[in-house]
């Protein structure tokens, strides 16, 4: 049966979103995939490839059959053994080796036999220390035990069958202690893209690779108070889980090898290469929690999620060529952990007569009226602004539940398609290509605009107030091509990878107050886009000097482009200005003065779309960079390795930088290795940080001024004496040991220290005071020269020091007829401000503008500084059992503070995951389980001590800080089909 794109769109994307559909983009995706499939089909018929069928049995060293073993061949099929340890697969004639891998056993390559049947005996292994890694070294064939830097390997294709999490960022958050990521709420665009970091450092200080090639960043800058504030990260969730074979995490600075951003480490995502097998998964689940918020909403669950994925590979010829396709479609509903609003909803000027008619018309004073006229009206009707919420709820027939905000995960829907292909050209070279495209729609809420909030209330359009929404339209694509092979004794790789991300904002259930009743309620607020093209040429060769000398060198060129897409006029303009640029659209509401007499409160009606004003000015900026690197590794003896790397990189906008790295490794016997590295690194300021700007118009001290975020190259920045941005510079050290002991145990223990100089931060709102200190008066006067009253910038303002310990202990053994694997991993890290805040002379004595206490808290404590996990995996014939406990360390939320400006600390908590899987028949597995089985929540906000943070029931849990979220128990079921 053939499904039309219209049917697919209706099936998966039908919603109440009030913006343009994805029909055209989906059609383009379907047409492209169809064309590619036709090309592959033609290739198959043209080559007339020869294949053969191999059958066999996999056992342990005692002859016991092992079910669930992955059997694969590059360019050939990939299958798993059945309950009796048997398998059958078809492979091209040219394939000479099969790879057998299974948790708890050493991965084994076996030569394809002349006969059609084979028996393979796997050896138990306490770890994955014998697995080959790609990152961390330009020398091929290094295992985890042999590499001089710490590398974690996450076998995602196996892990995804058992883990409750369905997105890459959340899977890594629960399996890798050094990794941190959580979905955000009430954070504008960050609600739709999860920021991710390594070792408690910045989200822009980790480099992400795809098949070893640089992956582009998003176009989103995280501006709200939360993880990665003022930073730009990479969206890991743009890639379907079904496309990924494994993920390597290099926990060491590697800018000398890979370039900018690799200060904290590198994440390398490796795509699948298997063919001949169809893999389909369907996962469904929801949050079943006993939290008070659900009870007040008369619900038993929320946040329903459904994800379906597929993967299928096709051999392209009889020489190992293949193309592997993957895709996914996800539908995620929102959650809400805000309880019934406890604050004031209605005041006396909102009163109705019981039939829904307003008794008082204070909106008559929204334009051209005087304070005297308004005061007379208020006095005549004895309006004081008194709270009448309880009585008015009865008159309107509503409850407090009807005015609850949405505080929880955003609603998301997305569709993604990826491919990975290799086609041999001749005996020495092969062509390769990979990439994909994804589309995401998101919907999140802002703060409620209640009738009791007079400057945000217009009863003619929203009688009961309104809850504005931010709708996102995110498109992400990347495509890589290359040729690699062997020319004489040299390994050659020439590649190009292009990637782009576009983020558009549609605001609905909103209003531009400066237009009053003439305002529309939905706005195209514009957005931003980022694209990157990277070209690499790499050479490497091994020489027979001492025990082996590997030399690698190469060059890179990178082009980057950042755009701001202007929104429609109504999304940003203030229409309430007269010919002299003075405000005319005011709101006057009653209040009482210090004597208890009725008085007038005057406020300007703001312009632009409420909750998210549109982008006023378009931006289109680009830059180029080029780099040269050299890398050498020498095995001095069988035990001792020395290595060094150097890289020069030059950017068209801020100049050049040279960085280096030195490593050593020494084998302490046959099972243990000591290793150490020292590196310098850098992070170029992102184009976003250099050129992002957005402004709004506000009334300050009776004068309209431009307020907002200004680029570092703007006139405002020049007047204030702010220097242009420069690259962050780092020095890093890592040292540790790794090895196996007592046959069944493995250990990895590493200390790290990272110092960053001239770290880029996002300033606080900078403003002066005409009556303050001489310095404050100077700032005030300088801002007036630039027609600004409040401004924010990106500046190189601080130095930081991050240090800690990573530890991983693993145990594997046979327990009864099954296999048990235990992993205990932990990260203990701490980032601290190193030295004084660096400010221009203009701001001497006002350093708080650049790095206030809240910013220091974000830097040091907004994500857990400690995280430990204990994972138990047990396989028994057709059954699999998975139990995990993760301890998330304490965090501090800078949005929640008491009267003495002391922030609230959220104490450590342990989250338990459990799943049970059963192989119904060959190729059919069912898994059920839970994330946060015990329904654990962060510490509740004390509404007496932290009333502002509690916000009348809106934020009962941490909102800005990133621990483990606050959605509660998630129950799921998953069906895995292998055909």
TrEMBL record:
TonB-dependent receptor plug domain boundaries: 144-266
Alphabetized Pfam families for the sequence: CarbopepD_reg_2 (PF13715), Plug (PF07715), TonB_dep_Rec_b-barrel (PF00593)
Limits of the TonB-dependent receptor-like beta-barrel domain: 442-933
Topology in membrane: Multi-pass membrane protein
GO cellular component, one term: cell outer membrane
Primary subcellular site in the record, as a coarse category: membrane
Keywords, in A-Z order: Cell outer membrane, Membrane, TonB box, Transmembrane, Transmembrane beta strand, Transport
Keyword presence, Nucleotide-binding: no
Cellular location(s): Cell outer membrane
Family listed: Belongs to the TonB-dependent receptor family.
Protein name according to UniProt: Iron complex outermembrane recepter protein
Species: Ohtaekwangia koreensis
